[in-house]
Amino acid sequence: MKPAPFDYVAPTSVEEACKVLAEAGGGATVIAGGQTLMPLLNLRMSQPFVLVDINKIPELSGISLTENGIRIGAATRQCDALKNPLLAAELPVLVEALRHVGHHQTRNRGTVGGSIALGEPAAEQPACAVAMGASIEIASVRGQRSVPATEFYVGPYMTILEPDELVTAITFPHWPSGHTPLFCELAQRPGDFALVGMVGALAIEGVAITRAGLGWFGMGGTPIRAYSAEAALLGQALGSIDADTIAELALSECAPFDDHHASAEYRRTVGKRLFAKTLRKALTVGEAA
Amino acid sequence: MNAQQLPQGLGAARYIGQRVLRKEDPRLLTGRGQFVDDISLPGMLHCAFARSAIARGNILNIDTSAARDMPGVHAVYTQADLAHFNAQMLSFFLLPPEVEMTPLASDRVCYVGEPLALVVADSRALAEDAASLIEVEYAELDPVVTLADARNGPPIHPGTSDNIAAEMGDEELDDDLAATLNGAAHLVTQKVVHQRISQAPMETRGVVASRDGNEELTLWITCQSPHMIARWVSQSLGLPQTAIRVIAKDVGGSFGLKNHPWKEEVSVILAALLFGRPLKWIEDRYEALTASNQCREAEMTLQAAFDAEGHLLASHGDYACNNGANPQGPDNNIAVHMFVWGAYKMPAYAFLTRGYYTNTNGLAAYRGPWAIESLIRETLLDRAARKIGIDPVEIRRRNLVTLKDQPSVSSMGIPREDITPAECMEKLLHHFDLAAFRKEQAAARAEGRYLGFGLATYIEPTGSAGSMPVMTGELAQIRIEPTGKVTATMSTHSQGHGTATTMAQIIADRLGVAYEDVTVFEGDSARGGFSPGAAGSRQGVIGGGAAISAADLLAAKVKTVAAHLLNASAETITIDGGTVHVTGAPEMSRSLGEIAAIAYGEPDRLPPGCESGLEVQHRYQPPPMTFTSAAHACVVEVDADTGFVKILRWISSEDCGTVINPAVVEGQISGGLAQAIGMVLLEEMPFDARGNPLSATFKDYLLPAISDIPEFEFVPANTPSQALGGMRGVGEGGAIIGPPTLVNAIADALIPFGELPEPLALPLTPTKLLSVIEGRDLAAHSAPAPVVVAAAAPATEPAPAAAAPAGEVRVDGAWDMVLKTPMGPQGMVVTFAVDGNAISGRFDSPEGSQDFIGGTLEVNRVRFDLKVEKPMKITLKYDLQFDGDSLSGKCKMGMFGSAKVSGTRKV
Fold it and tell me: Which of B131, B118, B99 minimizes the C-alpha distance to B359?
């Protein structure tokens, strides 16, 4: 378990990083926290010619409020995001999700952007971005673009990111203060990837739902947005909602798979159950508020 | 256990029975342990292996040229290079394997990950770069992966007629047994499918090999006994053992995997002999999970007949294990049958047991290698109790052997003199209020919460010595240095067992010195003497006995010397706190250091004829076997929404005799239980249909973490054994009794939904448990397609029993014959003398010679009896068919059932 030979560069600006990526012609891999990449390199499942270390680019770290929402620099460490007061106030669901990401040791090094750029279908942060309507900021020598998270993921570990592109930040849109976060994850051991997971938020005005963002992880080849469940919730009065029906709608968006940890039917059965349970709890909290 | 509860005969114990801090811990906890990877020698180079990418096939070509040409690469070796050493792979019993096996694959590969070539380079990274450049051309064959494949598929090893590696017992049920089984009030059948797992020691395998002279070799190797490694390597390579020194100071777990070296270690040693510079190979985690030996995979069906009241009447067991291609010993796990009913009043038991070859990693030992016997028996008993309508406690009370029932002999010939599983269970139930739990369980069920109680009892053979060649006694060499400090050199070896602590506790007590003044050295074949080390829960029992007897001899010498010097009688001398006292004369006290200085430096002052110095050694030979007994119970809650299991309580009531250090004993039991929890709920090493391992990293191979392990409660239930000091082995028990305890608790929790699925297939994943709760098979849509293996005809059809001989029948003369015994194939030369229809003859083997008479010849069939004394008194009944220059048949070995015999005419 030693990586195949590679060149190493540590640019100090996004511009410089993009230049290296462009010059490598697809042979470069970006390293931030390295919590997934290092094992992949050691197993020689990833064999880049050039490793582009973005840890020395100051502008890639930090969390700030912008007019579009809350912006998280791609190289922000998960441990820093976890204790960030702005995030706790604005986006409590991401903080809850981060508590389930790996372990203390991996969160000390792992980055928010690293997980979101990788696209592990059973990971918490990509699903959070999809459910909450985040957009992903991407830079390359060809310019900058911003892609909705819902359009970013195309399959397990596959995204629309071009080989010369770098994820620079993730912007989560503003959600009304006091919105209700939803999070539920089932993993065999604490810190494992999910067998089944759901994440999202509801905004409630009076007794009606005014905004819903809901997503799945571990329930298919990508993080999945539960559009039909969101649509069914919008404008509904809290007391009139049947959580099981909504969960059934959400489940219809999924295509979970079998592996030796759990069967697809297990994921469907338990996914629906946990979705409904989490939703019911959120509605009760909303009602009480 | 506290000091007051100590069994008699241990005298005033200040340290035995105490939780003294471990001597090893300051070094280990501050990162100053010495593991193989900590060894770095001048000029040392690094090794990596190119490995087979396919499970079965013939090697057409290995092209190493690109690897050899790489800068930084010093050598690339294939089996062609290593062949001239003629290294012989050996089992733990130092017997050669039945099928041809070389350190590196020569002309064929038989599992994914099999080593093909060894690269020697400046660094491990360069060695891996070069290994990836080695091109191998194969003619691939369909692999034989599962037990079903092995039964139906073609033999994977050339020259064999089937995939049976080892076989004992009888296929056809004895008429009386069948009648009892079928006529019983209750016949309960349990089937268990035990998954394959990885031993997964924290320190993976590794070796540093250094050729120091023409035939001098120093090895640093992670192992279970440096002495065993030295003996194994000496015999394997044909090197004089005096030229081999093996060092293993600290070892990070082993669990049976490191009993002896295997292909990779042998390849590195041979390469070091060839190349001349020291070589290092450290197995990485990917290799450890995918290319190392593995353990456990087996299937078993157990039938048990009960009378109307739930008393056992008879039983039959059918066992098969998947040995992989090159197991450390081709095994049919006879111990499963020896011990399955060992603790119970079971009038009659018969069995059939087989081990199969497949194109998977070889099997090696793992903590309680026969443990499936407890899993299947204890889960069967709970199911039987439910069927008969009695409590799990009651069915055990009616059938367990109690102290009142002893001495007695089990139906498999196991002598029982002091086993206490029934007494352990009663002590456990005194600690755990089962009636109160049943109320709590009923109340919880009413709320939709599913609690379960699991109980299991067992006995375990420990401290085995004297019955098998490598299972020897243990040696203690103790000296009081001229400074008065005590140094002990032991044949024991710790892979986390803390023997440097426990042995020092014993020595300090027996000598009357401070624990801090005793240092124990082990882990070096140049120190102490032979022992197999940690293999079979033996070191506390046998090493402890050696420490006691050697310390007592040394104390006696101190007393003799002191009595002479102080002009007192030896009976009045006591040693306490490192000081020698004369009873009634406190002014005459002398420090041990003063006595020692005289013993070494002033021989004229010693008693006449007394050897100078204060040094003794003793090898302790314990009773052949010492039994440990236990009852465990646990309480679980199963989440009916998810099928997740939470362990709420776990109680161990274990009779492990004299406890030297409760923390060490509890650590051993807890570690075994952690592995048990892993086996029941998490761990699995599956293969796909092409024989590719599917758990290649710890992301997929789920070991229990600290969050998965409850805090264990320990109920004292110890009674001293007959071994010196009264210890009983405690190394393996947790891994044996843990699985049935947990499975029974899960089954109890799910009673409202029905029985666990048949067969009981581990691990009990959330999918399987939710299937029980939901009453439908949640894995049904996704069952993997059945593996289709071309059912090739066996290479040679076994001869029908009454077939007429094809050629001339000539029995007279000498034959090379092989008997497949539980310890591996045993070779012998048999010379027959025919007189009409009467046969007599002579057996010659390395163990000795023996004549027999009274045999019969019937066309081509020869039958005769041979009475043997070793390893036990038994009559072997041979029934052989002769055909030309070959013979085949069976040997019925009393209660062990039948073993296969084959042979050829000696030329």
Answer: B99
Q: How far is A266 from chain B (nearest CA, A)?
A: 6
Give the end-to-end CA distance of chain A in Å, rounded to a whole number: 54
As given in the structure block, the two tokens for residue B31 are: 């990162």
| Cβ-Cβ contacts under 8 Å, A243 against chain B | none
The confidence score (pLDDT) of residue B851 equals: 87
The mean per-residue pLDDT over the stretch B783-787 comes to: 40
Reduce the DSSP state of residue A199 to 3 states and report it: strand
Residues 6+ apart with CB under 8 A from A116: A74, A125, A126, A129, A136, A149, A167, A170
> Are B558 and B611 contained in the same domain?
yes
The CA distance from B41 to B246, in Å, is: 15
Which chain B residues contact residue A190 at CB under 8 A?
705, 707
**Other C-beta atoms within 10 Å of B560: how many?**
15
> Is there a single domain that holds both residue B46 and residue B27?
no
State whether B273 and B391 are in the same domain: no
Q: What CATH number is given to the structural domain containing B116?
A: 3.90.1170.50
What are the pLDDT digits (tens) for B489-503? 999 999 999 999 999
ipTM (interface predicted TM): 0.95
Q: Does B475 have pLDDT greater than 80? A: yes
The one-letter amino acid at B550: A
In chain B, the number of structural domains is 4
Which among B76, B46, B524 is positioned nearest to B283, based on CA atoms? Answer: B46
Nearest C-alpha in A relative to B123: A2
Same domain, B758 and B644: yes
Note whether B646 contacts A: Cβ–Cβ < 8 A: no
CA dist., res. B493 & res. B226, Å (int): 8
CB contact under 8 A, B774 and A269: yes
pLDDT confidence of residue B666? 97
Beta strands in B664-765 (DSSP E): 713-716, 760-761
Please tell me whether residues B284 and B340 are part of one structural domain. Answer: no
Task: Note down the domain range covering B531.
Answer: 3-32+476-566+596-620
Tokens standing for residue B268:
């590195």
